[in-house]
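Worked example (supplementary).
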Amino acid sequence: MQRIKYLLIFFILTGLLFCVSFQSKKYLSSSEQSIVKEFINIPFAMRMSKLLFMDHTIAASQYYQFLAVIYSTKLNFPHYHMTGPGHEEHHHGEKHHHHEGTSPEGEKYVAYRHGPGGRDIPMTQKEVDEMAEREKYITAHVSEFIDIDYFYDLIDLSNALDESNDYILLFGRGWALNVDMARKMIEVLKNSYQRDPRWRTMFDAGWIALYNLRDYEEARKYLKAASNHRDAPEFVSVIYAYSFYVDKKYEAAIYQIARQMNETEDHNLKTRLEKNLEWYQSLLFLNRAAKAYRDHFGKDIESLNDLITSGLVKDIPQDRVGKGFIWDAENREVVSQNVYDLVKK
Amino acid sequence: MFNVIKYSLLENLRNKFYLASIGIILFIVWLSHYSSQINYNYGNYTMAILTFGMYFTKLVAFAFIIFLPVTNLSQEIETGTIYFILSKKIERYKYLVAKYIAFLLLYLTLLVLSSIALWLLTYVLVKERPEISFKLVYFVYAELLSGAMVLSLVFFIYTAIRAPIVTATVSAVTFFFSLMLESAKDIADRADTIFVKYFYLFLYYIFPNFRYFNLEKNIVYDKPIDPGYLLAMLAYSAAFSMILLLGSSLIFKHREL
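After joint prediction of all chains, the assembly is encoded as:
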């Protein structure tokens, strides 16, 4: 009898606690954004991490990496795979991109996404277009979902606690969705280079400046610094040299991305790289066609339609990253319209 | 003396705190497994799991070595068990050393158990970079030496002040303070006055430095470990522990229970 009484009291108290906690947390979490801005003081966190993690700085680095990974999920960035030739090789060596068939409405499946328990969910072109639109919306409005400064501070801190943690730099680079994120990532890489001067960090900074920011001067500065390292592989100076030529630049990008895809085991990153590879292939194709037009007609194209009317290309490939390919008359190259820049305008 | 070790071991193997430590360690190994999966979807799994696993093991083992000996010793004094043991013509210092060995062995079992669990996860289940998981032997070695020093510190403080909670607190503070000793050296180097300089230098040299026992980077990144360094660690830990054990034996011999 006594036991039942205690059990009853226990359940009543737990119930009361739950009610209070539930309501309070609901209120606090809804008003959190207006009161607390996510912020991290890197020098202080560095000192405290050494104490809290009992000098296990690698564990502290992994902890902040963990936070960054969890934080990135706030973006809820679509993850899907296209089917068909050219897409089979990049899935951990397993060819399971074959999802032939049609939807109940009779539409052909062209892609798939991952469902619970590793199950593949096939997608029609319409669903892919919706996902692509969502991707572009997120890319253009990242600040609505995450605090970019906080996100890159977590990455910086993780690398500061363990200079050998290259994965976190790779991760941060993979999330450089727009100009602001690319700039922050370059800062992170520069900080990492100050702590531990390695060709790889300068090369990555150069890469981002070259391909994400299209700031050729800055990119060459970093690439040159990277190529000056004795242990830098040959491709660093090749990419530095190629950065002076439009078509060669994309050729180098394709070569480098294919290399990265072979290097990494991270599925998310591999999927993103696969998409970037396609994008660079399209840019290379169009820039080569534009060069052929110039060589043949002795003048630049005025728009991409000139390539079709001249018969150099059949159609303009779909831009899966930006808002469509356009001719940049100033720099005399075919570029992808940046969704982020369009929003800013 | 052997009997004291034996019965201390048997008694504490059934101790709730020890059993809880085992439970927590197995739980953290499981937790490391999942946190590693979030950090790395594919690849580098061994590195992530070992990093988390070693840190959490150290955390639990540290709590164990700080709390269990003092609670056990104070219980034996309060219940009068110690009078019964000492009436068997065992010297007080032998009793203390036997307790020290028993707790160190228990500490070792926690480390070994955790390492085996981590090894099983990484080597048997994941089969990724198995050479790293074998390096957990170095982790056990370094942590055992570090634990020996902490335990001698706990014994020394407890015999001196005989207050369990204060002993645990002071020992923990000493441990965490030692992690900041490099700052004491920096302050000494930049000090303007001789007093401040020597005060911080005194702190730097007299305080035990537990940072020397952190081989985490070498294990995780598969870097070679100099055998000379391992020997120096052993010498440092042995010297420090023996001095403090000698001190605590002397105090224990002359004080009223």
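Two points are worth noting when inspecting this output. Chain A has a mean pLDDT of 81. The beta strands of chain A are 80-82, 109-114, 120-124, 325-328, 333-336.
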